[in-house]
Amino acid sequence: MKVEIINPDKTIYNGEADLVQLPGKDGSFEILNNHAPLISVLKEGKVKVIDKDKKTMFFDIKGGVFEVLKNKILVLAE
């Protein structure tokens, strides 16, 4: 699935991933390929991305929102 993590200043990550773990306002959750459409609020924490090569990356955010739609995840982070 395509993942894009952006903040007001720049694009933090733009690429393909097998798994994305997000710090939701009511708890952390994971998004896998073919996930149902979803929009949610994020709290401060780390976004975990496991790419197609099984490389794990972490990105610190201070909050934000995200959308999952048609195998694309868009994270608008602070």
Number of β-strand runs = 9
Strand content: over 45%
Mean pLDDT equals 95
CATH class descriptor name:
Mainly Beta
CATH homologous superfamily designation:
F0F1 ATP synthase delta/epsilon subunit, N-terminal
Number of helices: 0
User: What is the CA-CA span between the terminal residues?
Assistant: 23 Å
Shape: globular
Q: From the alpha-carbon coordinates, what is the Rg to the nearest angstrom?
A: 11 Å
What topology, given as strand order, has the largest sheet?
Answer: 2-1-9-8-5
SS content category: mainly beta
What's the order of the H and E elements?
EEEEEEEEE
Multimeric organization: single chain
CATH architecture: Sandwich
When the domains are counted, the total is 1
Described by strand count, sense and barrel closure, the largest sheet is: 5 strands, mixed
Topology (elements, then pairings):
Blueprint lengths: L1 E5 L4 E6 L2 E6 L2 E6 L5 E5 L2 E6 L5 E6 L2 E6 L2 E6 L1
Give an overview in words.
With 78 residues, the protein is an all-beta fold. It has a single domain (2-77), classed as ATP Synthase, domain 1 (Sandwich). The protein has no helices and nine strands. It has a five-stranded mixed beta sheet, with no helix packed on it. It has a four-stranded antiparallel beta sheet with strand order 4-3-6-7, with no helix packed on it. The model has no long low-confidence stretch (mean pLDDT 95).
